[in-house]
C-alpha cells in the first residue's frame, strides 16, 4: 500500500529541500493531445533513423506523411507552442524554413487534417499514439511488401521496359481507370515501376464493387499481394502515378498519313564527298544517320562549311518520314544501335580547330533499312549491330567484335 504523508512528513521533506506540493498536470484539449501524439510519432521516427523525416517520392509513405506534419507544426505558431516543451531533439528549429503562404487560407479543420488529426472526434476516441486515418489508409494501400524471391525472373522485364521507354517504343501516360490494371501491365507508383505479375479471381466488395487480389512486383526487388483497388487508389492519389503503354510503335513511317497523325520529322541517311582517306576508302559504307524536323535539303545546306558534315558536300541516300514520335529519342535509339560501328574521325573546322563528328557510321545501307523496318514493327529494342558480321544481332548474342575496331580512325 502507498504511504500517506502526514503534516510531520511534510515538514521533514521541506527541511530536506524536497518540494511537497505536487504540480498539477496542465489540462489539454483533445486537439492538443492529438497534436502532441502526432509530434511524438515524428520523434520516434527520429530516434529510429537518426534524422528528421524527409520529403521525396523515393521515401516511405509514412516518412513523407511525417515530413508534411513536421512542416505544418513548424509553420503554425499556436501548434509550435503545444509541442515546444517536449521538443528535446530540436525539430522545431532544424531544417530550412518552410513557406507557409500556401496554408494561409487553411481553416482549423484543414490544418488538423494535414497534421493527421480528425477535426470532429468523439470522446471515445480520445487516445494517444493512435495512427491517423490517413496513415492507416496508407498502410492498407502499401500492404505488406516482402522480398521477391524470384526477382531474377522479373528484373530483365524491368530493364527491357526501361529501354523501350528510352527509345520511345513505350511511353508513360496518366492513370485514368481501374480497367487499365491487368495482368502483364506496368505502372509507375511511388516513384517505382510496378509490374502486375498475377491477377486473382474477381470478387465483389460489400459495396458491390469489383476487386481482385494482385501479385505486384516492384523494380526494387520487393513484391506485394495487394488488392486491385488499393493499387488503383495509390495511382490516383500519386500526382506522378502513371501507366506504361504497351510497346507499339504506331504509325512511325507510312506512305500516307492518317487524319490526326502529327508529322514529327524525317530520318535521313547521307553519304559524304570528303576526301579524307578513311571516307574515300569506304565511300559506300560511311553513312551519316540523323533526324530533322525541317526539309533534308535545308538541313544539309552549306554542308561543306560544317564539321558535322565532315566539311564536305553530301549526297542524300535515303529518307524516311515519321509521325507521332519523339525525334530526339528516335535518333538516340538509332545511334545506340550502331554505336559499335561509330566512325571515330577528327576533322578541322573553318578555324582549324579539331572536331569529332558523332553521327557517322561504318554500316551498309541495307542494314540501316533493316533497322528502320524493325523500328516500325517494334522489335528493334532486342537488337544491336555487329560490325564483324555487318548485321543486326539479338542483344545478348555472342558478338564477334571488340567494341568499335572497324570504325576507329584518327586524323593523321
List the topology elements:
Elements: H1 7-15, H2 30-49, H3 61-75, H4 77-83, H5 108-114, H6 133-142, E1 145-147, H7 151-167, E2 172-174, E3 186-189, E4 192-199, E5 203-204, E6 210-211, E7 214-218, E8 222-224, H8 228-237, E9 242-244, E10 263-272, H9 277-281, E11 286-292, H10 296-299, E12 314-323, H11 327-337, E13 347-348, E14 354-355, E15 360-362, H12 365-377, E16 383-386, E17 391-394
Helix pairs in contact: 2-3, 6-8
Characterise the protein shown here.
The protein is an alpha+beta fold and 412 residues long. It folds into 3 domains: 25-140, no CATH class; 147-244, no CATH class; 263-394, no CATH class. Helices cover 31% and strands 18% of the residues. The chain contains 12 helices and 17 strands. It has helices at 7-15, 30-49, 61-75, 77-83, 108-114, 133-142, 151-167, 228-237, 277-281, 296-299, 327-337, 365-377; strands at residues 145-147, 172-174, 186-189, 192-199, 203-204, 210-211, 214-218, 222-224, 242-244, 263-272, 286-292, 314-323, 347-348, 354-355, 360-362, 383-386, 391-394. The strands form 5 sheets. A 7-stranded antiparallel beta sheet has the order 1-8-7-4-3-9-2, sandwiched between helices. A 4-stranded antiparallel beta sheet has the order 12-10-11-15. A two-stranded antiparallel ribbon has the order 5-6. Strand 13 and strand 14 form a beta hairpin. Helix 2 crosses helix 3 (61-75) and helix 6 (133-142) crosses helix 8 (228-237). The longest helix has 20 residues, at 30-49. The radius of gyration is 33 Å and the shape is elongated. Residues 1-5, 95-109, 114-143 and 399-412 have low confidence and may be disordered.
Amino acid at each position: 500500500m502507498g504511504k500517506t504523508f502526514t503534516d510531520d512528513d511534510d515538514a521533514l521533506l521541506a527541511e530536506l529541500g524536497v518540494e511537497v506540493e505536487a504540480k498539477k498536470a496542465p489540462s489539454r484539449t483533445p486537439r492538443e493531445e492529438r497534436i502532441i501524439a502526432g509530434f511524438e510519432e515524428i520523434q520516434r521516427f527520429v530516434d529510429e533513423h537518426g534524422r528528421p523525416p524527409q520529403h521525396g517520392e523515393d521515401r516511405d509513405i509514412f516518412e513523407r506523411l511525417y515530413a508534411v506534419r513536421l512542416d505544418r507544426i513548424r509553420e503554425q505558431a499556436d501548434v509550435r507552442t503545444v509541442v515546444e516543451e517536449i521538443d528535446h531533439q530540436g525539430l522545431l528549429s532544424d531544417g530550412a524554413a518552410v513557406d507557409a503562404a500556401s496554408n494561409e487560407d487553411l481553416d482549423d479543420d484543414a490544418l488538423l487534417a494535414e497534421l493527421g488529426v480528425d477535426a470532429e472526434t468523439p470522446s471515445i476516441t480520445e487516445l494517444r499514439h493512435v495512427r491517423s486515418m490517413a496513415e492507416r489508409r496508407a498502410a492498407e494501400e502499401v500492404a505488406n511488401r516482402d522480398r521477391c524471391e524470384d526477382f531474377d525472373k522479373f528484373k530483365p522485364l524491368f530493364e527491357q521496359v526501361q529501354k523501350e521507354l528510352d527509345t520511345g517504343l513505350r511511353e508513360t501516360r496518366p492513370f485514368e481507370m481501374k480497367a487499365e490494371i491487368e495482368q502483364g501491365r506496368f505502372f509507375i507508383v511511388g516513384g517505382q515501376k510496378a509490374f502486375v505479375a498475377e491477377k486473382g479471381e474477381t470478387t465483389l466488395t460489400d459495396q458491390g464493387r469489383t476487386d481482385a487480389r494482385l501479385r505486384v512486383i516492384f523494380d526494387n526487388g520487393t513484391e506485394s499481394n495487394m488488392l486491385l483497388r488499393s493499387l488503383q487508389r495509390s495511382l490516383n492519389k500519386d500526382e506522378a502515378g502513371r501507366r506504361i503503354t504497351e510497346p507499339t510503335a504506331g504509325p512511325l513511317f507510312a506512305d500516307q498519313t492518317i487524319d490526326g497523325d502529327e508529322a514529327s520529322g524525317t530520318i535521313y541517311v547521307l553519304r559524304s564527298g570528303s576526301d579524307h582517306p578513311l571516307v574515300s576508302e569506304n565511300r559506300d559504307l560511311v553513312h551519316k544517320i540523323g533526324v530533322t524536323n525541317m526539309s533534308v535539303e535545308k538541313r544539309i545546306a552549306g554542308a561543306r562549311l560544317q564539321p558535322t558534315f565532315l566539311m564536305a558536300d553530301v549526297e542524300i541516300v535515303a529518307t524516311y518520314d515519321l509521325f507521332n514520335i519523339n525525334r530526339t529519342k528516335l535518333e538516340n535509339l538509332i545511334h545506340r544501335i550502331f554505336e559499335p560501328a561509330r566512325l571515330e574521325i577528327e576533322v578541322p573546322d573553318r578555324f582549324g580547330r579539331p572536331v569529332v563528328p558523332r553521327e557517322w557510321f561504318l554500316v551498309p545501307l541495307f542494314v540501316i533499312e533493316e533497322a528502320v523496318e524493325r523500328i516500325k514493327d517494334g522489335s528493334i529494342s532486342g537488337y544491336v549491330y555487329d560490325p564483324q558480321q555487318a548485321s543486326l544481332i539479338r542483344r545478348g548474342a555472342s558478338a564477334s567484335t571488340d567494341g568499335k575496331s572497324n570504325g576507329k580512325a584518327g586524323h593523321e
